[in-house]
């Protein structure tokens, strides 16, 4: 397995810290609104990475956080109001009710896209204590300072700050959103903990008074809590690189004194009709929108895999329609390839070559477009249909498209179905095409798909 490391700016072979075991942290959603399909592309990328690692035999422990705390930076509206509290006002629900509502919607979206559930989904509000501990360690190690009840990270104390995003100190002067804070030593220092203002609902006790944590510190605290002070892979969207992941590196390494994340993988943006997704642009789409338009959500997963994860992707409804048809065609092939004569055994040389090319593609920096080319070649490959089914069924452990869902393989046909198939075959042999067509229609209504081949009919049962 090899993939692009954002920190080192190159595609590198991957070797886990502990052979056969991979610790992976994925930045999760901020649950004050529904996750749109652009967000979900990022989670599909993480899921594909995990599936490929498991395909290669590794055991993966994935942690995905749930951000249910409002923030003083990066999650504020244009007027500076906390977005979580704006959602509270809009929907008339308490903060924990808002968080629960959109956490459940997020998890339902993952299930619809066949994204494997993480081992844990820790909530930020359950880990305030760990965040305070990280801030205290940073103060003790002279990486942070207290001013006016706030705790700030001293960026100048961490000389390698900027190496993930390739930002310089000069470029950082206006990079963080809260500007002109007179309590900061430098404008580019960032908040670890902020004192709660009057009327603040979400606040907690701390050594510096009642307040609430910064966005970045939660991932440092929870990743270390569940994966240890050094783990293999951290994933997220390209919009997380700065400031979120840059600040996370400074916090985690400042608190521990050593490298914590070994490899960083980021997926690129998804545009909708050529623009960034936003409600104001009326191009903000969710899984529910896909379903309401009659699409199988897995067609979106199939569409996502047609673009490399490090490339920007443009979503259109025409492309979605094409992906939907392509997915249906793959599933139809699977019903044609399965038969009562399927047997386990060694693959032919041609099938083994296809299998090798598929594995080579998915392990080469998640080259899913190349892998899908191999999948498409199976239909015309000169190999037995049993091998076609076996290959694609195995590959679907990575693809996650539920390609065999319309297939029910049985050791023997029900007697009535078997007799009807035999009767139709006799009609075909005698040239009675009208009867053959009628029997075929009846079989289809019974859930039987027939494919006529030179060696006789092949069948499958649809659910």
Instruction: Work out the oligomeric state of the chains in this entry.
Output: single chain
How many DSSP-defined strands? 15
Query: What separation lies between the terminal Cα atoms?
Result: 36 Å
The largest beta-sheet arranges its strands as 4-3-9-10
Looking at this protein, list some descriptive labels:
about 475 residues; alpha/beta; Rossmann fold; four-stranded parallel beta sheet; 15 helices
Secondary-structure map:
Blueprint: E1 2-5, E2 10-13, E3 21-26, H1 37-55, E4 59-64, H2 83-91, H3 95-112, H4 128-140, E5 144-147, E6 150-153, H5 169-172, E7 190-195, E8 211-213, H6 215-227, E9 231-237, H7 241-256, E10 261-267, E11 270-272, E12 275-276, H8 287-292, H9 297-304, E13 313-315, H10 317-337, H11 349-363, H12 368-378, H13 385-399, H14 415-429, H15 433-445, E14 448-453, E15 456-461
Helix pairs in contact: 4-6, 4-7, 6-7, 9-10, 10-13, 11-12, 11-13, 14-15
Would you give an account of this structure?
It is a single chain. This protein folds into 3 domains: 2-267, Rossmann fold, CATH 3.40.50; 275-399, no CATH class; 415-461. It is built from 15 helices and 15 strands. It has helices spanning 37-55, 83-91, 95-112, 128-140, 169-172, 215-227, 241-256, 287-292, 297-304, 317-337, 349-363, 368-378, 385-399, 415-429, 433-445; strands spanning 2-5, 10-13, 21-26, 59-64, 144-147, 150-153, 190-195, 211-213, 231-237, 261-267, 270-272, 275-276, 313-315, 448-453, 456-461. It has a 4-stranded parallel sheet with strand order 4-3-9-10, with helices on both faces. A 4-stranded antiparallel sheet has the order 5-6-7-8. Strands 12-11-13 form a 3-stranded mixed sheet. The two termini are 36 Å apart.
């Amino acid at each position: 397995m090899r993939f692009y490391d954002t920190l080192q700016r190159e595609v590198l072979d991957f070797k886990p810290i502990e052979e056969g075991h991979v610790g992976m942290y994925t930045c999760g959603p901020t649950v004050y609104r529904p996750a749109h399909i652009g967000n979900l592309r990022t989670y599909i990328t993480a899921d594909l990475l995990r599936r490929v690692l498991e395909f290669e035999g590794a055991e993966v422990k994935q942690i995905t956080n749930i951000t249910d705390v409002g923030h003083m930076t990066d999650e504020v509206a244009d007027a500076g109001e906390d977005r979580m509290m704006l959602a509270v006002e809009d929907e008339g629900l308490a903060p924990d009710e808002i968080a629960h509502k959109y956490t459940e919607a997020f998890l339902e979206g993952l299930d619809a896209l066949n994204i494997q559930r993480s081992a844990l989904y820790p909530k930020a509000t359950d880990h305030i204590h760990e965040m305070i501990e990280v801030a205290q360690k940073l103060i003790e190690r002279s990486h942070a300072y207290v001013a006016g009840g706030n705790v700030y990270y001293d960026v100048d104390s961490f000389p390698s700050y900027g190496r993930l995003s390739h930002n310089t100190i000069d470029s950082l002067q206006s990079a963080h959103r809260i500007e002109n804070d007179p309590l900061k030593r430098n404008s580019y220092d960032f908040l670890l903990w902020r004192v709660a203002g009057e009327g603040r609902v979400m606040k907690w006790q701390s050594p510096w008074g009642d307040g609430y944590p910064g966005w970045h510190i939660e991932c440092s605290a929870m990743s270390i809590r569940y994966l240890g002070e050094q783990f293999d892979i951290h994933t997220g969207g390209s919009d997380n690189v700065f400031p979120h992941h840059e600040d996370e590196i400074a916090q985690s390494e400042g608190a521990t004194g050593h490298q914590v994340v070994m490899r960083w993988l980021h997926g690129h943006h998804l545009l909708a009709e050529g623009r960034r997704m936003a409600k104001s642009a009326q191009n903000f789409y969710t899984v529910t929108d896909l379903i309401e338009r009659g699409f199988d959500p897995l067609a979106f997963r199939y569409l996502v895999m047609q673009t490399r994860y490090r490339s920007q992707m443009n979503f259109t409804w025409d492309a979605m329609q094409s992906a939907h048809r392509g997915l249906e065609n793959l599933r139809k092939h699977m019903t044609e390839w399965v038969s009562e004569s399927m047997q386990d055994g060694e693959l032919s040389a041609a099938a083994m070559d296809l299998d090798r090319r598929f594995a080579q593609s998915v392990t080469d920096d998640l080259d899913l477009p190349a892998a899908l080319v191999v999948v498409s070649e199976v239909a015309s490959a000169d190999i037995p249909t049993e091998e076609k089914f076996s290959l694609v069924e195995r590959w679907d452990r990575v693809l996650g498209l539920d390609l065999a869902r319309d297939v029910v393989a049985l050791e023997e046909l029900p007697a009535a179905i078997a007799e009807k198939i035999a009767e139709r075959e006799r009609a075909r042999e005698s040239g009675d095409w009208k009867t053959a067509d009628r029997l075929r229609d009846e079989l289809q209504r019974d859930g039987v798909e027939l494919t006529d081949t030179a060696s006789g009919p092949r069948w499958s049962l649809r659910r």
